[in-house]
Amino acid sequence: MNTRTLVKNLAALPDGPVTVSGWVETVRDQKKVQFVILRDESGAVQLVNPATRELPEPIEGGEADAAASARLATTESISALAHGTFLTVSGELKHDERVKLGGLEVKIGSLEVVAEANPETPIAADSSLDKRMDWRFLDLRHPKQHLIFRIQTTFEHALRQYWVDNDFIEIHTPKLMASASESRAELFEVDYFEGKAYLAQSPQFFKQMAQPAGFGKVFEIGPAFRADPSFTSRHATEFTSIDAEMSWVDSHEDVMRMHEELLVAAFTAVKEKHGAEILDLFGIELEVPTTPFPRIPLAEAKQIVADRGYVIPRDDADIDPEGERQISAYVKETYGHDFVFLTDWDISLRPFYHMRHPEDSALTNSYDLIYNGVEISTGAQREHRIDVLVEQAKEKGLDPEELEFYLDFFRYGVPPHGGFGMGLARVLMLMLEEHSIRETTYLFRGPTRLLP
Ligand code: AMO
């Protein structure tokens, strides 16, 4: 059993013997004293070593001083330490207010180099994002990066907690599929024995399947794949999708209500646990959103954007990224809110499985959720009437025969239902005001990135 103490736990210990392990961050090698900043996964501590540069002359006829030899060896090995070397150090913990780093230091007794590091570090603070991604394991060593993934852990845990408290069932749907569930254009095809399979773009069909299966409410946090050739800061070819689907919704309004409650629960948990660190490392005072989030029909949103002087390039098109930024700015100015649901999307912009608006069949019972200027989620009530669903599939140019397995879900009693999908890395990117989902994805996958 390893007896090392985590750095974050040193403060609570009395002065006395301790063992710590971690990576060498810096070495200050002075003539009379050496300082090493050692970092483990919990924090950094200063190690100190009174330097022994040469052995005293042995007294005539006497033995060399063994303790002095050991101190000389320790001094020499500290001088040779490369940044990133992994050490185990045993020594004496001493609390001392004058030490800037945490008010304590460890006087080195013995030092073991557990794993050496190449002396040339391949990345520096000013390396390009791409270079940092090449060396992601080194890039991830920094406290800011650790915090991102501790926040991710808390965020996901809070989502699960909310769903468990509200009787949702967790599902794990297959990522190998026989057909597309979203746009065919973004489909990865793989050889599958004698035939072909496709990587799941979304758990869409299978989370819907849980409704006729009688599960009522379900969720999944899992991988999704999109053969999207774009190089934007918000697209990956593989991403973690947060999905929920529930029965007995009257409209997309019920889905939005669950969605906003869920986000409030998750943001509250993140703020409680990490608020101070987020302020310290990112300079951000995290805001927990208030409910209800503002809701604006898409057509109205486009008008607001136009009135602000931004013309979305094609009138029939989706609201584009600049349009999203503009509507977010408007919502922030008008309602002081970071989130906005854009509702009632045109059928031309939505997949066949969205339910049409009861009062205007050119629109759907659907929404996008925009957070700080970027879409993080799409949700909708689904069409559950089989005859209407088949018609809508045909209108979108889909062959109902290819979708037979999905259409069967609707032939044996399916409750009205709805749900949403939300990109995990996008939420974290916007929460922490990062510029790319590469920063908030453990290992990013894009058109030209399959390594490491
Ligand atoms: P949609 O395609 O809008 O909807 O995806 C839902 C959310 O997933 C995230 N996302 C992505 N994140 C990173 N890289 C990508 N290439 C990428 N594509 C999507 C976004 C987006 O808002 N089945 C529906 C959801 C539903 O109706 O339940 C769907 O997948 O944050």
TrEMBL record:
It is an enzyme of class 6 (ligase). GO terms for biological process: aspartyl-tRNA aminoacylation. Keywords: Aminoacyl-tRNA synthetase, ATP-binding, Cytoplasm, Ligase, Nucleotide-binding, Protein biosynthesis. Its main location: cytoplasm. It is found in: Cytoplasm. ATP binds at E375, G423, L424, A425, R426. Catalyzes the attachment of L-aspartate to tRNA(Asp) in a two-step reaction: L-aspartate is first activated by ATP to form Asp-AMP and then transferred to the acceptor end of tRNA(Asp). Homodimer. This is Aspartate--tRNA ligase. It comes from Agromyces albus. The gene is aspS.
